[in-house]
Amino acid sequence: MVAQDAAPEEALRAAAAEVSTPSATRRLRLFRDTLPPLLAKATESPSDTTLLVDLIFQTLPLYDDRASRKAVDDMVIRALSESTFMKTFAATLVQSMEKNLKVTSPLACFKLLRWSCYLLKWTQFATLSKGGFSRLANAQAVLSQVLMNGSFRQRRTCKQLFIRLFSESVGIYKMYIEEVKDLRIATKDSPAFINLILDFTVTSSSLFSEYKPVFLDLYVKTILSSKDRPSEAASEAFKPLFVDIGHEDFKNVILPSCIKMLKRNPEIVLKSIGHLLLTVRLDLSNYAMEFMPVILHQARHSDEERRNNALNIVGTLSDKSSDPDTLPSMFNAIKAILGGSEGKLSLPYQRIGMLNALEQLSRFPPKQISRLAPSVSSFLLTCYKGDGIEEVKLATLSALGSWASVSSEAVQPDVVSFITAGLKEKDTLRKGHLKLIRVICRNSDSLTKVTSLLDHLIQLSKTGFSKATQRLDGIYALYAVSRLAAIDAKADGSIVKEKLWTLIAQSEPSLISVQLLSKLTDEDCLTCVDLLQSLLVDHLFRIQEYFSIQSLLQVLMYLVCHPSWAVRKIAYDATKNVLSNSGALAEDLLFLFTSWLSLVGERVLTLKQSDMDSSGDSQLPFIPSTEILVKCLFLIAPYAIDHSRRSYARLILCSHHPSISSSGSPAGVWKV
Known about the structure:
- The protein is mostly helical and 672 residues long.
- The protein has a domain at 574-661.
- It has 38 helices and no strands.
- The chain has helices at 8-18, 24-34, 39-42, 46-58, 66-79, 83-99, 106-122, 125-128, 130-148, 152-168, 170-181, 191-202, 205-224, 232-237, 239-243, 247-264, 266-279, 285-299, 304-319, 326-338, 348-360, 366-386, 390-406, 413-422, 427-442, 454-466, 471-487, 489-497, 500-507, 514-517, 522-538, 540-546, 549-560, 565-581, 584-609, 626-643, 647-655, 658-661.
- Belongs to the GCN1 family.
- GO terms for molecular function: protein kinase regulator activity.
- It comes from Triticum turgidum subsp. durum (Durum wheat).
- Keywords: Repeat.
């Protein structure tokens, strides 16, 4: 126990020996009972003050419990009223913060930030030492990045810390604004702090009106005029500024800088400008044609990343333009370049880039697409026939598919004749035409326009399921056949007459094998989802005659648990549609899910006991996470219990399976 009547220096040295105690009780006694009475005497001597400050900073890496931290904080707040202590504490704090800029724990970081806020709140430090405040603010900005990159709780705590500080003292807030304005707080190193102070600013209409020019200027200087490519976090930091930006500021401040830098350093600003356009809530019709010349130049650049960033911008301009005259203007600009207005596009990637840009125009509103679709599809057919490079032809088919997915007006008679000829192409181009047909058949308005393709598609289905090497072609063709048969009784009769179901059942009883599924691309998996949905919704009774429904449901379940989120999302929606149409299938699917859980559990146990790789397992090509399994169970359960009360027991068994109920996973069903 430290003697309170001893000399301050001796008492402080004795306290320093106790500060590292693991006992919370002794810590509380030290900072609540022992040190406060020494405060007045200790601050009379610079050396004693230094000892006291050092003692406080020794707690930084040690005190991790709430009670001990609060006792230290209370001591700091009380001591800050002494000017001698304040000066020594401020100097040590700034040095400690600068020392910990690169390596620090979130807890230590939070303590330093909180002490710095106490310093600004309870003293006149900010006005007494402008240079000291500048160093402190810069260190705060860098350390706040650590917390803002952390968990939700850490981010929330950091925000609350500064919002409280700004709210309690407008003068302090304005001093931070000056630091930001004069670039003493670097956006590159501290984007989270820029976002934090901007977030606070936009909550007050008066502050936002006063300081909006400061942030606009900061964006132009640090993002658009940057000599190095800005990080995604730096661009994201300005999101609150652009969510509600008006046309006047965008046109007069942002647009000129965007165009200027796209001409000067496009590789640096392309991605940031793409993020900017995605963020603003403006109709971009008036600006689209100012962007297009410089963006289209990048869309045919040799660098793939540049092309992709430019295409994203074209897509955003399309998505956010409502003026009906904008789409024809953008189309004509692309058409002119493909026609050689800026020189011959001799390299395939240049033509592909322009065709991809034309594909992005399909993001315009459907009404506008419908008016221009016939002209675009006719132009794309001309491009296809006039180019001898396979990759360019595939890009043309992809663009045509995107337009056809939005408007049935893109599917003109010449397009149908073109597809008929395309189904006779070699492997890769034939597959491209089949992908185009799939897109057309997904649009119910277009189905009646391609009924003449039925006979060709039936033959491709037969060939595809007769030859293992063409199985994928067969799946694409069968999907189109299934969709056409759903709207045309004659088509269904042709399928029966050609004995298509019988032939497929003999060649591949499960229709789509799990082994094949594991080798397919995401796009091909999505086609499998479409096929299964069409068969189980539109042709369930017919399919039951030839195939095992359980085999089809098993494939559908695998797709619901697929590693790719894009596949899972579409498969999830398709399964809801299937089960809504026939609740009896839910009971079968729940039974399959129960068996599959056992297989997953056995496989996980085997992998834990050995160094085997799960990729070679024909029954289980991938092991889904607990979260995915839980979502799959939640998908099936409502339909299963609605159809049969017997499903309750199986549902309870599934929910208690280790793969789902494991307490080691935060995504499990049961929360402790």
